[in-house]
Amino acid sequence: MYAFTKRLFDILASLLGLTVAAPLFVLIGMLIRRDSPGPILYRGIRAGKDGRPFAMLKFRTMVMNADQIGGPSTAADDPRLTRTGRWLRKYKLDELPQLINVLRGEMSLVGPRPEVLSEVEGYSANERTLLTVRPGITDWASMRFNDEGEILQGCSDPHQAYLERIRPEKMRLGLEYVHTRSLLLDMQIVVQTVAAIFTTRARSR
Q: Can you say whether the dihedral through the CA atoms of 60, 97, 17, 185 is positive or negative?
């Protein structure tokens, strides 16, 4: 029953979100195109449920071919970030296209954040439990590390810093969600995520 209700909620919420955010999609697309050459959307290959690869959609926040000139972790001072990209990441607006992934059934609104395939290959047997559910747009770890770029800022090796400072707690929180998930918990995480975004906006003024 939980799985059916969660999927129904994902479909309705993603449809509503895409409808309401349509004008914002157009505006963001124009800003990205004005800021740097290249596509509006970035399609990153990630591991989905049961480890199946899928193309996770994001508004492009970096220069073209950024994955060929740097690592998978991004600090706030990463030179690959565009001016518009920094703003999009700050307010998590780059994640909005993932509502399309939710509608397709590749992701859920709430769930462990999807990882690149190379990271998943190194999962322990316990960590592979994360792959038993659809990855999500937000979860406890997303809120705990909503300033991930700032945490990695100034590091000579941002990815190594990610592995040491963020990954262990991120894995723990993801596994905690998988073992305790419920529709009520999903609602709580969605509400707290929205509140966190508005809090970030208020602090920046």
A: negative
Q: How many residues does the chain have?
A: 205
The Cα–Cα gap between 155 and 200 comes to: 23
Q: Which residues, in sequence order, are bridge partners of residue 54?
A: 46
Single out the residue of 9, 5, 103 nearest to residue 54, CA to CA: 103
β-strands 41-47, 108-110 pairing: unpaired
Contacts of 71 (CB under 8 A, 6+ apart): 157, 158, 159
Closest CA to 173 of 118, 137, 134, 127: 127
End-to-end CA distance of the chain: 43
pLDDT digits (tens, 9 = 90+) for 53-112: 999 999 999 988 887 777 788 888 888 999 999 999 988 899 999 999 999 999 999 999
Neighbours of 15 (CB within 10 A): 13
Q: Do the beta carbons of residue 130 and residue 175 sit within 8 Å? A: yes
Q: Which of 121, 93, 118, 55 is nearest to 201 (CA)?
A: 93
Q: Residue 156 burial by CB count (10 A; 0-12/13-18/19+): exposed, middle or buried?
A: exposed
